[in-house]
Amino acid sequence: MTVPDSGPGSPAALGSPVRLDGPWTHRDVAANGARFHIAEMGDGPLVMLLHGFPQFWWTWRHQLTALADAGYRAVAMDLRGVGGSDRTPRGYDPANLALDITGVVRSLGEPDAALVGHDLGGYLAWTAAVMRPKLVRRLAVSSMPHPRRWRSAMLSDFAQSRAGSYVWGFQRPWIPERQLVADDAALVGELLENWSGPRPLEEEAVDVYRRAMCIPSTAHCSIEPYRWMVRSLARPDGIQFNRRMKRPVRVPTLHLHGSLDPAMRTRSAAGSGEYVEAPYRWRLFDGLGHFPHEEDPVAFSNELISWLKDPEPDR
Fold first, then answer.
1. Which of 9, 10, 146, 265 is the most exposed, fewest CB within 10 Å of its CB?
2. pLDDT computed for residue 16 by the predictor
3. Burial class (CB in 10 A: 0-12, 13-18, 19+), 176
4. Given pLDDT bands bounded at 50, 70 and 90, which one contains residue 17?
């Protein structure tokens, strides 16, 4: 079911700085008790694109056009609390965020989708593939290990724990939110620059992400999933989630990673295939950092589309 853009408190009004013009169509979709902004383009099998931190749907602008040209219905959604989607007071645990994604798939009238997730979006894509396997046709993850690998690396690998120090810093109350929006979200620009490889993101793109972070409540909502990921480590809900993620992924999986990613080390991501009982392909992009889909969008899109079109992807 789709929801019209209306009202001063609607996602459309809140998210006006992120409804950027292009060949895509913007609309809101109701799912899992909230409204989600999507940008969509093309016709064919659904490919759902899931952004990471500190970005929003626009990070997939290159892939939207490439996928549509290749014969797919490409949809980039804003996660709960980000961009043009609802900013709810709760619901930022990965299980609920994954239900947001699969709920949008259902609301779009599709039987299933190929999920493509980057960073936090990748974490949620892994989760959705385990929780709602019938709704996930294929899985492609960039710059993020399987949740159990992420947990292990952050707790037992000092180098990864240091590389992910921003996650630990997010556990403080209120201070991270203020830091993210200070000086027109200057910290967002610093993170994007520090996490990129030798090919930095375009200055225009950085400015767009900074403006999006300054939308009221976005900084808080962006941080909440990371707070849950750490604070739940020793809680029953976190332990139960970790056990639940032992279930193997049973759909073809493409795992993409930049060799120079400073935020998520290669050795932290590698090995996630042990949780996949289906064809699994690992692709390392030489000379790219944490944002391979933006640092080299042509190479990334070609790899993704070639894999999507492969009827029997190899192991």
1. 9
2. 65
3. buried
4. confident
